[in-house]
Amino acid sequence: MLASRCIVGDLRGLLGQRPLPAWAQRCFLSGGQRSSGPAPLRLRTRVAVTLLVGGGLAAGCWAVSREKEGRLRRLRAEQLEAAALGRGNFSLLDHRGRRRTAADFRGRWLLLYFGFTHCPDICPDELDKLSAVVTALDRDPALPPVTPLFITVDPERDDVAALARYVQDFHPRLIGLTGTPEEVREAGRDYRVYAHAGPPGPDGDYMVDHTVLIYLVDPQGRFLDYYNRTKDQDQVTRSVRGHMLSHAPV
What is the torsion angle, in degrees rounded to the nearest 10, for the CA atoms of residue 158, residue 163, residue 166 and residue 167? Predict the structure, then answer.
């Protein structure tokens, strides 16, 4: 009966009626104090169990995801290795007139792009992206530097002087490479690069249709990956960083 009187008195107070009598207030307050003891403990226990189980599931999902990524990366590496790209030893002139071969770049990570200096938009866009990737990787002290290379597919117009002017617009480490038409074709064949000059216009200018890819080459001269125009700067940066951190020299 006392408990019933306490509940009724509490409801009347919430409904804005006359104040509760003293005995009802004491009963209500004492009832609240008796029930407040174990509740926080039960709540903390439930939260701790939830966090423990959730953390375990998250860790398991992360481990499975990492394992899957590792398998996919190994599979892709095997497929690219079977493609046998970049196995030749090109010999070209850099933008300072110095003879450079593929062997000169052993021991360095390379990002390589084939294009031409008269390209109105695609080549500049891709070289801007390549330069931004190299700059982003340079900010990570755990990674070795990456050397960016630009090999022309238009040696008739892109001589040493033309390349020297062109590379100034991009990353300061960008090396431009040119040579005779046969030397340039040989370098392109190593990476299965397609290049075909179109018909000249009234002013003698012409476009060159060519493969648009950025190639990643490891310090042993092995072709590891490629990036087309659909890959943005952040995607390429993450991929290159992943290759560098998981790299196993041979």
Answer: 140
Reply yes or no on whether the pLDDT at 91 is more than 60. Answer: yes
CA 116 from chain center: how many Å? 26
Report H helices in the chain: 2-14, 22-35, 38-83, 122-138, 160-166, 181-190, 233-245
Pick the more confident residue, 35 or 142: 142
The Cβ of residue 31 has, within 10 Å, a number of other Cβ atoms equal to 14
Tokens of 132: 């931004």
Across the range 213-218, mean pLDDT stands at 97
User: What six digits make up the tokens of 19?
Assistant: 């104040």
DSSP string, 163-214: HHHHGGGS-TT-EEEE--HHHHHHHHHHTT--EEE----TTS---EEE---E
Closest CA to 157 of 215, 96, 109, 115: 115
pLDDT (tens digit per residue) in 123-174: 999 999 999 999 999 999 999 999 999 999 999 999 999 999 999 999 999 9
What gap in Å lies between CA 97 and CA 106, rounded to an integer? 20
Condensed to tens digits (0 to 9), the pLDDT of residues 46-59 reads 766 676 766 667 66
| CA atoms of 175 and 170, how far apart (whole Å) | 10
Structure tokens that stand for 171 in this block: 């990353």
In angstroms, the Cα distances linking 86 to 3, 21, 145 are 88, 93, 20
Percentage of residues in the chain having pLDDT higher than 70: 68
Asked if 113 and 124 count as a contact pair (C-beta separation under 8 A), the reply is no
Quick one: tokens of 133? 């990737």
